[in-house]
Amino acid sequence: MKKRLLTLLLLAGALSAWAAPDPALVRQLAADDNSDKIAAIQQLAAAAEPGTTRLLQAMADDSLYALDGKLFVFDGENTLDALSGETVELPEGADTITVNNRLRGELANALAALKLFDDDREVRLSAAQELQSNVGAELAPVLAKAKAAEKDAEILALLVSAHAKASLQDADPAVRLAAVEALASVNTPAVRSLLLPLTEAAGESDAAVRNAAVAAVKSIERSLAWGDTLAAVFTGLSLGSILLLAALGLAITYGVMGIINMAHGELLMIGAYSAYLMQSLFRSQFPELIDWYLPAAIPVAFFTAAAVGVLMERTVIRWLYGRTLETLLATWGLSLILIQAARVIFGAQNVEVSNPSWMSGGVELLPNLILPWNRVIIIGFALFVLFLVWVLMNKTRLGMFVRAVTQNRAMAGCVGVPTARIDTMAFALGAGIAGLGGVALSQISNVGPDMGQGYIVDSFMVVVVGGVGQLAGAVWAALGLGIFSKLLEGWAGAVIAKIMILVAIIIFIQKRPQGIFALKGRFADQ
Amino acid sequence: MSAITSALPLPASGRVPLTLRVFAALDRKAWIALGVFLALALVVVPVLHLAVPPESLFHVSTYAITLIGKIMCYALVAVAMDLIWGYGGILSLGHGLFFALGGYAFGMYLMRQIGRDGSYQSDLPDFMVFLDWKELPWFWLGSDSFGWAAFLVLAVPAIVAFVFGYFAFRSRIKGVYFSIITQALTYAAMLLFFRNETGFGGNNGFTDFKRILGYSITAPETRLVLFGLTAIALAATLVFAAWLVKSKFGRVLTAIRDAESRVMFIGYNPLWYKLTIWVISAVLCGIAGALYVPQVGIINPSEMSTANSIEIAIWVAVGGRGTLIGPVIGAFAVNLAKSWFTVSFPEYWLFFLGLLFIVVTLLLPQGLVGLWKKIMNKKQGAAA
User: Could you give phi then psi for residue B109, rounded to 5 degrees?
Assistant: First the structure.
C-alpha cells in the first residue's frame, strides 16, 4: 500500500514536471514569421500553464530546437521532446530557433510574468518589480490572473500598478479609466510620462479617461514637487552638518581667542588625508577589515589635526596675542605651507577615498527622494560630535574654563584660570573637530590639497550668523545656511544662490551684528 | 579738536595754501627720490629700451618693461591698501575686487577697440558671438568711448566701495569681521564674473587686445607710454597720500585706528572718515587695475581670488605698514621674488610665501622700513 502510494506520488511528480502547454501554441514557436512567434509567446505567457517557463527559458537560452513541426529542449545533458518530455536523440538537421532582440524582450517579459506564479515570495517580488517598466497590453490578462492569486500586500501593490500600466492601451474605455485611476496613486516620474500622452486628445479619445489622466498627472506632479523639496531640504541638512563640523572648531577658537584661523580649512584637509592614509593602511595590512577603516580613521584624524593645531598655536598664534589682523595673515601663511606640503607629499591630484560598503546605497523614501546612506550617516555623525562638544563645554571643568575665557579673559585670569593653557586646549579641540569634519568630507567630496580653501568663508559665515561663543548659534546658523542655500540653488542656480546668501548675510549683520545668539553683557569695545 | 591739531608741528590746516601744503607733505629727500624715480621711468628706461641694441648689456627688454610696469601697478594697489590698513587700521581682503573692477571697466573699452579684428570678424567681442548674443548688453553701452571707460574705472569701484562700506561701517563691523566680510564679497563677485551669462567673458575674461586709442597695443612706444603713465600715477599717488595722511583728516583717521571709542567720545563720527579713506583706496585700486590690463594683456576673474587679495596685504606688511614708501618696497620685493621663484623653484614658492607671512607678522611687524630704521638708530646710538 505504502509502496503504491509512493509510486503514485512519484508519477504525479513526474507528470507535473512535464505538464506541457497547448501543443498548437508550442509548435507555433517554431513558426517562420517573427510575429507568429511573438503571438505564441504572449499567449503561452497569458495562459501561464505549468511547464511554460522551462520551454520559454530554453528558447531564450538558444537551446530549443525544431525540425518538421517537432520541438526539442536540450537541457545540458539530454535532449527531450518539448511536448511529451521523453528523452530522445536529437534528430539530424534539427536547428535552434532563431531569437532576435525583439523576441528576447518578449521572452524576458513573458518569463517575468510567469515568475509571478512562483512559490518563492522573493522570486515573485523581483518579477513584479521587473514588470514595472515596459509592460505591454498583452500582459494584462496574466497580470490580472496573478493579481487575483497574490496574497502578499507589497507584491500586490506592484501588481496592481503593473496591471494598470498594461491596461492603459485596452480597447475598452472603462478598463482604461480604471487603470488611470489606479495609477494616480503611484507617484513616480515614469508613471507621469506614461500618463502624459493620455491627457491630450491625440493620445486618448475618451473624455472621461482624459480628465482622469489630467487629474492623475496633476496629483503625481504635486507629490513629486514635495519629493523635490524634501530632497533639497535633506541635501541642505547634509550640507549644514558639514558646515557645522567645519564651523564648530572655528567658533570655539574665535570665541576664546578672537582670532580667525585661516588655516582651519587645511585642518579639514588633514582629517581627510588621515582617512585616506587609514584606508591605504587597512588595504595593505588588514584587507579583510577594509570596511572598518573609517571608524579607525576618526581618532587618528582627531589627534593628528589636534597635534597640528597645538603646533600652530605654540609656534605662531601664541606670539601674536591681541593682534588679530596679523594672526589672520600668519594663519593664512600657515595654510599656504600646509597646502603645498600636502601637494609635495600626496601629489597635486585628488586621492581616491571610497565609501565602506555599509555606507553605499541609500534608503528610498519617495520615488524621487532617495537618501544616500553616506549623507545620512554624516548627519548622524555631526549630531554625535555636537553632543560630545556640548558635554565637553557644559559638563567638564575644561569646558567651564573655555566658557569663562570666552566671556571675560582678564577676569578669568584673575580668578586663576590658566588662560594660556586654555588657549592651547581650545585650539587643539577646534583643530581636532575640524579633523573629524575632514573625515566626513572625505566620504562625499574630493580629497585634494585645495579641498579646505572653499570652507573658510562658509564656516566663518556660520560663526558670524550664529554669534560668537554659542554652540546653539552655530547649530542653527549651519543648518539654516545649508537648507536655505540648497533651496535657493534649486530655484536660482548654484552661483546666484551663493551670492544671494552672502548678500543676505551682509544685510543680516546690519540688523544683528552680534549674530542670532549674542552673549549677554555690556561691551564698549571688543 | 584744536587740541589735537595744535599739538602737532605743522601749522593748522586751512591757513596755508593747498599747493604749499602738498609741497610740505614730503621732505626734500623724498622729493629728490621721487624726481629720480620719474626721470628713470620717463627718460632712462625708454632710451635704454629703444636706442640701445638688444645685445647690449644695458638694453632693457620688453619682458623687463612689462614686469616692472606690472609691479608698479601692484605698488599702487599696495599704497592704496596701506592707506586703509596702515593708517585706518582696517584690513581689507577685498582689494582684488576693486583692482579687477577697474581692470574690467577699462578692458571693456579695449575689447571694443578690437573692432572687427577678432576671430569672428564681428562688431561684438568674440565671447559674445560665441554665446550667440545679437547685441551688446546695456552695461556695455558707451564702452567704445575712452572717456566713458575712464569714468567707469573711477566710478565703479567708488560706488561699490561706497555702498558696501556705508553699510559695513555704519553697523560698526570691524577687525577680523570686516576682513572676512570683504573676502566674502570678493568671493561672491568672483563667482559672478565666472558665469558666462554675466557678460564679462566668463573664466577667460578679456584678452587678445589690439589697440588703445587707435595705437597698436604691442608697439614698443605704446608700451613705454603706458609704463610712463603708470610711473606718474604711482608718483602722484604717493604725493597725494603723503599730503592726505598729514592733513587733519589723516590724523583723525590715525586716531580712529588707535582708539576708535575715544575719537567717538570726543565727538567725531568715524563712519565718514572710514568711508572716505575706503572709497579713495578703492578708486586707487581701480586706477591700478586699468593701467595693469593693457600692459599685461589679460583680465579674468581669478584676479578676484582670495589668495590675490591677501597677497596685497603681505606686500604692505613686508614693506612696512603706516609708511608710504614701505608698500612700494614690499610690492617690488615680493613680486620680484615671485618672478624669480616661479621660474627657478616653482615648488617652493608657496612655502616661501607662507613663511613670509609668518616671519613678517612674528618678527618684522614694522616691515623692511622698520628694520632699516632700527639698524640706523643702532648705528646712530653707537656713533653717539
Answer: -65, -45
